[in-house]
Every structure is written in structure tokens, then in C-alpha cells.
Amino acid sequence: MTDLHSRSNSTCELCGNHDNLSAYSIPPNGDGSTEQSLLICDICNDQINNPEKVDVNHWRCLNDSMWSQVPAVQVMAWRMLNRLSAEGWAQDLLEMLYLDDETLAWAKSDSTDDDSAIVHKDSNGAILNAGDTVTLIKDLNVKGTSFTAKRGTAVRNISLAASNEEHIEGRVNGTQIVILTKFVKRAN
After folding, report:
1. Distances from the Cα of 64 to the Cαs of 41, 83, 114, 167, in angstroms?
2. Fewer beta carbons under 10 A from the terminal one: N or C of the chain?
3. Where are the domains of the chain?
């Protein structure tokens, strides 16, 4: 633990807080070593372990800590930004964050991820997240309306169907519609 205090200058390595610090071993294979642990505050610890308690604004601190040269900090920043990816600012930070292949593999090995979780992918196989903007790749007749959603139309701030990986929802011409993921591509 003294190594963690030295490395972090006795501050939370995620948010910079000085109070109520403890070692956090990064799952799933955290062995308690300095390389696989962080020094974090009770607030960060509570929110990491209890996703329902996450205060989105608390995690804006990742704007600074994600640039740490410590792989363990990079891993937790990546995981939290992914958890918050529905927030525009978090998605922007995630797109800026670069992890080497080994660190990225570690970040993706989170034991809390469920392999059976529904993943929405566009026509090119890119993963879609809530809040993304997509572009239609073909004209779509919209059932129950008198208009056709034209190819090239941007659909902003999409939401994902929780029970079907092939469905997303978004507004076209002011009407909320369900769109099949095979007819969209993620906008960059």
C-alpha cells in the first residue's frame, strides 16, 4: 500500500480526492500487486462496485486521470467511460483514449461483463451505443406514416432496444421509429 501512496501522491488515482483512500485490486485477476491495483477513495470505490449509485458528474474527473501512464488507471478509466458511454462527453473521451493492445485486452477482461449481453452492431459490424448518431444506408418505408426515411438521413441520439440486438430507436421527421441495425451505419 505504501507503493500505491507513493505512486499517487496519496490521492485517489481516478478523481484526485485525498480522503478515505484504500487499495482497489482490479478484477477479474487482480492479485493485490501494485501493478494490478489502484489507490481510490470511498466515493469511487462505492460507485465502481454499485453501478446503480453512479453519479455521472463525479466521473468527469476521468478527463484528467485517463491520461495517466499507469496501466491500472488506464484500465479503470476505460471501463468507467464504457459504462458511461451513453453520455456524450464520456463517449468523446473514450474515442480519444488510446490503450496499447495488452492494456486494452486487460480492460476488456472485466468479469462484470456478461458474454450473453446484447450488443448492437451496425451494417459494418461497428458497435452502437445509446446516444450515437447513425446514417440510414437505404430508403425505409415507415409503417403507420405517409413518409419514407431516405438513404443518408442522420438519426441522432439513438436508443437501443434492451431485448433485441437488431433494433434501435430514433427520430426521423419528428417521429420516433424502430430501425433495424442492418440498415444503418454509425456516423463518425
Report:
1. 16, 17, 29, 35
2. C
3. 2-108, 134-186
Question: Residues 95, 96, 98, CA angle at the centre, nearest 5°?
Answer: 100
The C-alpha angle with vertex 134 and arms to 142 and 158, in degrees rounded to 5, equals 75
Q: Any idea what DSSP says for residue 35?
A: G
Query: Is there a contact between 178 and 163 (Cβ–Cβ < 8 Å)?
Result: no
Q: Is residue 81 exposed (0-12), middle (13-18) or buried (19+ Cβ within 10 Å)?
A: buried
One pLDDT digit (tens) per residue for the chain, 188 residues: 788 899 999 999 999 999 999 999 988 777 778 898 999 999 999 999 888 888 999 999 999 999 999 999 999 999 999 888 888 898 899 889 999 999 988 988 874 544 456 789 999 988 898 889 999 999 999 888 888 999 999 999 998 887 788 999 999 988 889 999 999 999 87
Q: Which residue in this structure is represented by grid cell 507503493?
A: 3
CATH topology for 134-186 is SH3 type barrels. (2.30.30)
Where residue 61 falls (left for φ over 0; alpha for ψ -120 to 50; beta otherwise) is alpha
Number of C-beta neighbours around residue 86 at 10 A: 15
Q: Is 41 left (phi over 0), alpha (psi -120 to 50) or beta?
A: beta
The one-letter amino acid at 45:
N
Instruction: State which amino acid sits at residue 179.
Output: I
